[in-house]
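We were asked to recover a plausible sequence for a given structure. The inputs and outputs are reproduced exactly as logged, with field labels preserved.

PROBLEM: sequence recovery
POSITIONS: 92
GIVEN STRUCTURE:
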């Protein structure tokens, strides 16, 4: 399944390197937008959150949500190639 991980990190200047590594450990990933990652994973949304939560401040905001085949946007070709190659793993 493909999940979008979206966040609003509230602590300026804090290193979120461990959070980024936790996201990368969930599966194959894509990251072209500052606050959005797409992850191709066998984990559930809850499983992803369990990996990320230890690296999050309590005042940060997160949304982990399944990606559907109904999508559109303005992205580089490499981004669309990654997304389109996985469209069969998206929710209807």
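RECOVERED SEQUENCE:
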């Amino acid at each position: 399944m493909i999940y979008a991980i979206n966040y609003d990190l509230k602590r300026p200047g804090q290193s979120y390197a461990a959070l980024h590594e936790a996201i990368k450990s969930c599966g194959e990933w894509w990251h072209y937008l500052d606050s959005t990652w797409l992850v191709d994973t066998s984990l559930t949304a809850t499983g992803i959150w369990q990996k990320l939560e230890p690296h999050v401040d309590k005042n940060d905001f997160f949304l982990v949500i399944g990606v559907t085949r109904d999508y559109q946007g303005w992205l580089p070709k490499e981004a669309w190639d990654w997304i389109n190659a996985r469209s069969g793993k998206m929710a209807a």
